[in-house]
Amino acid sequence: MTSTYYAPQGGQPGQDQLLTDRAVFTNAYAVIPKGTMRDIVTSFLPFWSQTRLWVLSRPLSGFAETFSQYIMEVQHGGGSDNPETDPRAQTVLFVVEGTATLEVNGAIYELTPGGYAYLPAGRKWRLHNQHQQTLRFHWIRKAYEAVSGLDAPDVLILNENDIVPTPMAGTDGKWATTRFVDPSDMRHDMHVTIVTFEPGAVIPFLETHVMEHGLYVLEGKAVYRLNSDWVEVEAGDYMWLRAFCPQACYAGGPGQFRYLLYKDVNRHMTL
Prior knowledge:
Layout: E1 24-25, E2 29-32, E3 49-57, E4 68-80, E5 89-97, E6 100-104, E7 107-111, E8 115-119, E9 125-128, E10 135-143, E11 156-159, E12 166-167, E13 175-179, E14 190-197, E15 202-207, E16 213-219, E17 221-226, E18 229-234, E19 238-241, E20 247-251, E21 257-264
Antiparallel strand pairs: 1-2, 2-19, 3-4, 4-9, 4-10, 5-8, 5-10, 6-7, 6-9, 8-11, 12-13, 13-14, 14-21, 15-20, 16-19, 16-21, 17-18, 17-20
């Protein structure tokens, strides 16, 4: 089955539109629906040309504190020779539309939809859109937590379409995870994966755990349990969860329900 990836297009709602969107922010979770990603809420960054972005999440004291996530939109000829100004920040890029030309370690890569890049903290890189089609990609950033005796992770350049998803045990393949990083590799302190549910598949219990989450719906629709609430989500929506927020899911149809998932892993709790 061919993967699809929803990407926001911006624009503004008409003056005749009612304020009936699904956005919500609580002390345990937030839902940022695709309809809120309009021109008026875009941001801009130093040293990026012909580029705007939607900030989906950022560290907030008392909420989710480990990461930030953007959807970047780069027009033809745009990009940056100095994209990251924080030497502590490690990066995951995931392309949903267009082609990114990425330069790192003297090598040049073309990232097409489904393309994934992990870039260690402190590593110099460049990114441009040399193609006519608008480039849209997720950019997830986290300050790397180094551990004495562990080397820093390596650069990874992959594509979802080249990876066989790992089924969740006992689900007959109806719930699976596409992993870009080996879970046993302790060098990594964050994972970004793609979770796929077949129509009708479920998370059959309230997951309650220490990992913070960002979940961007790439495809399909579902009813998601967040804390004490059931919310409807669809392609283009974003869910942002603080640690220990209970969560479960019923996937709708007619196609797969898929999301890009961030979580922090493999480190002691800061005391």
